[in-house]
Specification:
The chain has helices at about 5-15, 65-70, 75-90, 115-130, 145-170; strands at about 15-20, 30-40, 45-55, 60, 95, 100-110, 135-140. It is flat and about 60 Å long. About 40% of the residues lie in helices and about 30% in strands. The protein is of the alpha+beta class. It has two domains: about 5-60 and about 95-170, no CATH class; about 60-95, no CATH class.
Length: about 170
């Protein structure tokens, strides 16, 4: 399988078993704890659990005038026309920054089926009462792709609330 096939397979196979209870914060850093469970496809009843944290910086407002400067470095004429059209519509965007704290990464193997491991992890996470914990089922070789897919989906789900919060405070 090619690298691009592995990438697409990882995107398709990423399943959020238990999402965080809250969205990304609008006005402060959000620290998420992740538990990513994968199955070793080369061994019977061997699963891996990766635990770590992701720090999501608070979203920053990108004004239409700054959008083209920030996002279009090295892009061509068509992209410049799109930026001009967005500026005319006075569309703004939010920029999110993420740091995957690999120093917090802990990986361990479990010699049982992946569904049993997921059930055990769900119990462990529930006992911690952390509203920013997430459990993800993914692909072993491309687990980082699974984690990034989750983060991009969370940004999409958080964006509307973040924009509403900014408008309510008169920042947009």
């Amino acid at each position: 399988m090619s690298a691009i096939d592995d990438f697409h397979y990882a995107l398709e196979q990423t399943v959020v078993i238990q999402p965080p209870e809250r969205r990304l914060s609008t006005f402060s850093v959000s620290m998420l704890s992740y538990y990513l469970v994968t199955e070793d496809l080369d061994a019977v009843n061997v699963s891996r659990v990766r635990e770590g944290s992701i720090e999501a910086a608070r979203p920053q407002i990108i004004t239409p005038g700054n959008f083209s400067k920030l996002m279009l470095e090295g892009f061509g004429e068509q992209a410049e026309r799109l930026a001009a059209a967005l500026s005319e519509r006075r569309a703004g965007f939010l920029k999110y920054g993420f740091t995957v704290k690999k120093s917090d990464l802990r990986t361990y193997e479990a010699h049982e089926p992946v569904d049993a491991v997921i059930a055990r992890v769900k119990g462990d996470v529930a006992a911690k009462h952390d509203p920013l914990s997430v459990i993800i089922k993914g692909v072993d070789d491309a687990w980082e792709v699974c984690l990034l897919k989750f983060m991009m989906d969370l940004v999409g789900a958080s964006g509307e609330k973040n924009l509403r919060d900014l408008r309510e405070r008169g920042l947009l």
